[in-house]
Amino acid sequence: MIVICAASGALGRLVVEELRGRARVVAVVRDPAKLADAGVEVRHGDYDDPASLGPALRGAERVLLISSPDLDTERRVRQHRAVLDAAVANGVGGIAYTSFLGADRDGAGMNAAHHRTERAIADSGLPHTILRHPFYTDAFVEAGLRAAVADGLLRSDTGGRGLNTATRADLAAAAAAVLTDDAHLGRAYDLTGPLWTYPRLAEVLTEVTGRPTKHLDEPVAGPMGFLMGLARAGALERQTDDLRTVLGRDPEPLRRTVERALQPPARSG
What we know:
Blueprint: E1 2-5, H1 10-19, E2 25-29, E3 41-44, H2 50-56, E4 62-65, H3 73-89, E5 94-100, H4 112-124, E6 128-133, H5 137-141, H6 145-151, E7 153-156, H7 168-179, E8 187-190, H8 198-209, E9 214-217, H9 222-232, H10 242-247, H11 254-261
Parallel strand pairs: 1-2, 1-4, 2-3, 4-5, 5-6, 6-8, 7-9
Protein name: NAD(P)-dependent oxidoreductase
Pfam family, one: NAD_binding_10
Region (Disordered): 248-269
Protein backbone atom coordinates (compact mmCIF):
# COMPACT_ATOMS: atom_id res chain seq x y z
CA MET A 1 0.00 0.00 0.00
CA ILE A 2 1.29 3.43 -1.00
CA VAL A 3 0.23 6.48 0.99
CA ILE A 4 0.36 9.92 -0.61
CA CYS A 5 0.41 12.73 1.95
CA ALA A 6 -1.04 16.14 1.06
CA ALA A 7 -2.74 14.41 -1.84
CA SER A 8 -5.29 17.13 -2.56
CA GLY A 9 -2.69 19.56 -3.91
CA ALA A 10 -1.85 19.88 -7.60
CA LEU A 11 1.16 17.57 -7.40
CA GLY A 12 -0.49 15.08 -5.05
CA ARG A 13 -3.50 14.64 -7.32
CA LEU A 14 -1.23 13.89 -10.25
CA VAL A 15 0.71 11.29 -8.26
CA VAL A 16 -2.52 9.60 -7.19
CA GLU A 17 -3.66 9.51 -10.81
CA GLU A 18 -0.31 8.04 -11.91
CA LEU A 19 -0.53 5.25 -9.33
CA ARG A 20 -4.21 4.45 -9.52
CA GLY A 21 -4.60 1.05 -11.12
CA ARG A 22 -0.93 0.18 -10.56
CA ALA A 23 -0.99 -0.21 -6.79
CA ARG A 24 -3.24 0.14 -3.79
CA VAL A 25 -3.19 3.88 -3.11
CA VAL A 26 -4.34 5.79 -0.05
CA ALA A 27 -4.67 9.56 -0.31
CA VAL A 28 -4.09 11.41 2.97
CA VAL A 29 -5.59 14.88 3.14
CA ARG A 30 -6.69 17.43 5.70
CA ASP A 31 -10.21 17.49 4.25
CA PRO A 32 -11.26 14.13 2.72
CA ALA A 33 -14.22 15.78 0.99
CA LYS A 34 -11.77 17.46 -1.39
CA LEU A 35 -10.86 14.06 -2.88
CA ALA A 36 -14.23 12.37 -2.79
CA ASP A 37 -13.99 11.66 -6.54
CA ALA A 38 -10.38 10.43 -6.56
CA GLY A 39 -11.27 6.77 -7.04
CA VAL A 40 -8.94 5.67 -4.21
CA GLU A 41 -9.20 5.29 -0.45
CA VAL A 42 -9.03 8.68 1.26
CA ARG A 43 -8.00 9.18 4.88
CA HIS A 44 -7.88 12.21 7.13
CA GLY A 45 -4.35 13.31 7.99
CA ASP A 46 -3.29 16.80 9.00
CA TYR A 47 0.35 17.89 9.13
CA ASP A 48 -0.59 20.14 12.07
CA ASP A 49 -2.31 17.31 13.96
CA PRO A 50 0.29 14.59 14.66
CA ALA A 51 -2.32 12.35 16.31
CA SER A 52 -4.14 12.08 12.96
CA LEU A 53 -1.08 10.86 11.08
CA GLY A 54 -0.56 7.52 12.83
CA PRO A 55 -3.94 6.14 11.71
CA ALA A 56 -3.52 7.80 8.31
CA LEU A 57 -0.30 5.88 7.62
CA ARG A 58 -1.40 2.56 9.12
CA GLY A 59 -0.55 -0.35 6.82
CA ALA A 60 1.62 1.74 4.52
CA GLU A 61 4.52 0.07 2.75
CA ARG A 62 5.61 3.28 1.03
CA VAL A 63 4.87 6.91 1.86
CA LEU A 64 5.26 10.04 -0.24
CA LEU A 65 5.83 13.07 1.96
CA ILE A 66 4.96 16.06 -0.19
CA SER A 67 6.56 19.07 1.39
CA SER A 68 4.32 21.53 3.21
CA PRO A 69 3.72 24.88 1.46
CA ASP A 70 4.08 26.71 4.78
CA LEU A 71 6.68 29.49 4.57
CA ASP A 72 7.61 29.41 8.26
CA THR A 73 10.67 27.18 8.54
CA GLU A 74 10.07 25.96 12.09
CA ARG A 75 6.45 25.07 11.47
CA ARG A 76 7.30 23.41 8.18
CA VAL A 77 9.99 21.23 9.76
CA ARG A 78 7.62 20.36 12.60
CA GLN A 79 4.97 19.29 10.08
CA HIS A 80 7.42 17.11 8.19
CA ARG A 81 8.72 15.53 11.39
CA ALA A 82 5.17 14.63 12.38
CA VAL A 83 4.78 12.60 9.18
CA LEU A 84 8.21 11.05 9.63
CA ASP A 85 7.45 10.05 13.23
CA ALA A 86 4.20 8.43 12.11
CA ALA A 87 6.05 6.55 9.37
CA VAL A 88 8.60 5.23 11.86
CA ALA A 89 5.88 4.24 14.33
CA ASN A 90 4.04 2.34 11.60
CA GLY A 91 7.15 0.52 10.38
CA VAL A 92 6.87 1.93 6.89
CA GLY A 93 9.20 0.23 4.44
CA GLY A 94 10.25 3.36 2.59
CA ILE A 95 9.56 7.08 2.38
CA ALA A 96 10.07 9.52 -0.48
CA TYR A 97 10.28 13.26 0.11
CA THR A 98 9.81 16.13 -2.33
CA SER A 99 12.73 18.39 -1.49
CA PHE A 100 14.25 21.20 -3.58
CA LEU A 101 17.38 21.54 -5.67
CA GLY A 102 20.39 22.43 -3.57
CA ALA A 103 18.86 21.46 -0.23
CA ASP A 104 21.67 18.97 0.36
CA ARG A 105 24.22 21.79 0.26
CA ASP A 106 22.26 24.85 1.38
CA GLY A 107 20.60 25.06 4.79
CA ALA A 108 19.59 28.72 4.54
CA GLY A 109 16.72 30.71 3.10
CA MET A 110 14.04 28.88 1.15
CA ASN A 111 15.96 25.61 1.47
CA ALA A 112 16.28 25.69 5.27
CA ALA A 113 13.27 23.46 5.94
CA HIS A 114 14.18 21.07 3.13
CA HIS A 115 17.75 20.75 4.39
CA ARG A 116 16.63 19.96 7.93
CA THR A 117 13.96 17.55 6.73
CA GLU A 118 16.47 15.65 4.59
CA ARG A 119 18.72 15.29 7.64
CA ALA A 120 15.81 14.14 9.80
CA ILE A 121 14.89 11.50 7.24
CA ALA A 122 18.48 10.25 7.10
CA ASP A 123 18.63 10.12 10.91
CA SER A 124 15.32 8.22 11.13
CA GLY A 125 16.84 5.02 9.78
CA LEU A 126 13.96 4.58 7.33
CA PRO A 127 14.79 3.50 3.78
CA HIS A 128 14.20 6.63 1.74
CA THR A 129 14.45 8.45 -1.55
CA ILE A 130 14.94 12.20 -1.88
CA LEU A 131 13.37 13.91 -4.87
CA ARG A 132 14.86 17.39 -5.21
CA HIS A 133 12.53 19.39 -7.42
CA PRO A 134 13.22 22.43 -9.54
CA PHE A 135 10.60 25.17 -9.96
CA TYR A 136 7.53 24.05 -11.88
CA THR A 137 7.45 24.84 -15.59
CA ASP A 138 3.69 25.28 -15.17
CA ALA A 139 4.19 28.40 -13.03
CA PHE A 140 6.17 30.09 -15.80
CA VAL A 141 4.65 28.76 -18.98
CA GLU A 142 0.95 28.55 -18.20
CA ALA A 143 0.68 32.02 -16.67
CA GLY A 144 -0.21 34.68 -19.24
CA LEU A 145 0.42 32.68 -22.40
CA ARG A 146 -2.94 33.51 -23.95
CA ALA A 147 -2.44 37.21 -23.26
CA ALA A 148 1.03 37.04 -24.77
CA VAL A 149 -0.38 35.50 -27.94
CA ALA A 150 -3.17 38.07 -28.10
CA ASP A 151 -0.71 40.97 -27.60
CA GLY A 152 2.02 39.45 -29.73
CA LEU A 153 4.44 40.19 -26.92
CA LEU A 154 6.00 37.95 -24.25
CA ARG A 155 7.74 39.75 -21.40
CA SER A 156 10.40 38.44 -19.05
CA ASP A 157 13.24 39.67 -16.89
CA THR A 158 15.57 36.73 -17.34
CA GLY A 159 18.17 38.27 -19.63
CA GLY A 160 17.67 35.32 -21.95
CA ARG A 161 19.20 32.93 -19.41
CA GLY A 162 18.09 29.32 -19.19
CA LEU A 163 15.51 27.78 -16.86
CA ASN A 164 15.79 24.16 -15.73
CA THR A 165 12.16 23.83 -14.65
CA ALA A 166 10.10 20.63 -14.95
CA THR A 167 6.38 20.06 -15.31
CA ARG A 168 4.30 18.87 -12.38
CA ALA A 169 3.18 15.96 -14.56
CA ASP A 170 6.75 14.75 -15.09
CA LEU A 171 7.63 15.18 -11.42
CA ALA A 172 4.50 13.26 -10.44
CA ALA A 173 5.46 10.46 -12.83
CA ALA A 174 8.93 10.41 -11.29
CA ALA A 175 7.45 10.12 -7.79
CA ALA A 176 5.24 7.24 -8.92
CA ALA A 177 8.26 5.47 -10.44
CA VAL A 178 10.24 5.82 -7.22
CA LEU A 179 7.37 4.60 -5.06
CA THR A 180 6.94 1.43 -7.09
CA ASP A 181 10.57 0.34 -7.48
CA ASP A 182 12.80 -0.57 -4.53
CA ALA A 183 15.88 0.15 -6.65
CA HIS A 184 15.41 3.85 -5.86
CA LEU A 185 15.73 3.42 -2.10
CA GLY A 186 18.85 5.02 -0.70
CA ARG A 187 19.07 7.45 -3.62
CA ALA A 188 18.76 11.23 -3.90
CA TYR A 189 17.81 12.71 -7.25
CA ASP A 190 18.35 16.26 -8.49
CA LEU A 191 15.51 16.57 -10.95
CA THR A 192 15.78 19.11 -13.77
CA GLY A 193 13.83 19.48 -16.97
CA PRO A 194 15.15 20.48 -20.39
CA LEU A 195 16.75 23.93 -20.32
CA TRP A 196 14.62 26.59 -22.01
CA THR A 197 14.60 30.37 -22.42
CA TYR A 198 11.93 33.03 -22.81
CA PRO A 199 13.16 33.99 -26.30
CA ARG A 200 12.71 30.35 -27.26
CA LEU A 201 9.27 30.33 -25.62
CA ALA A 202 8.27 33.26 -27.84
CA GLU A 203 9.42 31.28 -30.88
CA VAL A 204 7.43 28.25 -29.79
CA LEU A 205 4.31 30.37 -29.27
CA THR A 206 4.70 31.65 -32.82
CA GLU A 207 5.15 28.12 -34.18
CA VAL A 208 2.21 26.66 -32.27
CA THR A 209 -0.33 29.44 -32.83
CA GLY A 210 0.79 30.82 -36.19
CA ARG A 211 0.62 34.31 -34.67
CA PRO A 212 3.93 36.19 -34.34
CA THR A 213 5.01 36.63 -30.71
CA LYS A 214 8.07 38.68 -29.84
CA HIS A 215 10.06 38.57 -26.62
CA LEU A 216 10.74 41.71 -24.60
CA ASP A 217 13.20 41.72 -21.71
CA GLU A 218 12.00 44.18 -19.07
CA PRO A 219 11.46 44.31 -15.28
CA VAL A 220 8.66 42.12 -13.95
CA ALA A 221 7.07 42.85 -10.58
CA GLY A 222 5.90 40.52 -7.82
CA PRO A 223 6.76 36.88 -7.07
CA MET A 224 7.33 36.10 -10.74
CA GLY A 225 9.84 38.93 -10.86
CA PHE A 226 11.76 37.30 -8.01
CA LEU A 227 11.86 33.97 -9.84
CA MET A 228 12.95 35.64 -13.05
CA GLY A 229 15.67 37.41 -11.11
CA LEU A 230 17.04 34.03 -10.06
CA ALA A 231 17.06 32.98 -13.69
CA ARG A 232 18.78 36.21 -14.74
CA ALA A 233 21.52 35.48 -12.20
CA GLY A 234 22.05 32.04 -13.76
CA ALA A 235 20.73 30.23 -10.67
CA LEU A 236 18.33 28.03 -12.66
CA GLU A 237 20.69 26.63 -15.28
CA ARG A 238 22.00 23.56 -13.47
CA GLN A 239 21.34 20.38 -15.43
CA THR A 240 21.34 16.69 -14.52
CA ASP A 241 20.09 13.52 -16.20
CA ASP A 242 18.27 12.38 -13.06
CA LEU A 243 14.73 13.14 -14.20
CA ARG A 244 15.28 11.31 -17.49
CA THR A 245 16.79 8.38 -15.58
CA VAL A 246 13.90 8.06 -13.16
CA LEU A 247 11.25 8.49 -15.85
CA GLY A 248 12.93 6.14 -18.31
CA ARG A 249 12.15 8.67 -21.04
CA ASP A 250 12.84 12.27 -21.96
CA PRO A 251 10.99 14.90 -19.90
CA GLU A 252 8.23 16.77 -21.69
CA PRO A 253 9.62 19.24 -24.25
CA LEU A 254 8.70 22.93 -24.13
CA ARG A 255 6.53 22.75 -27.26
CA ARG A 256 4.28 20.06 -25.76
CA THR A 257 3.95 22.03 -22.53
CA VAL A 258 2.88 25.08 -24.51
CA GLU A 259 0.38 23.07 -26.56
CA ARG A 260 -1.22 21.74 -23.39
CA ALA A 261 -1.31 25.18 -21.77
CA LEU A 262 -3.11 26.67 -24.77
CA GLN A 263 -5.76 23.97 -25.01
CA PRO A 264 -9.29 25.24 -24.31
CA PRO A 265 -10.42 24.53 -20.72
CA ALA A 266 -12.33 21.26 -20.36
CA ARG A 267 -16.09 21.78 -20.29
CA SER A 268 -17.83 20.39 -17.24
CA GLY A 269 -21.12 18.58 -17.35
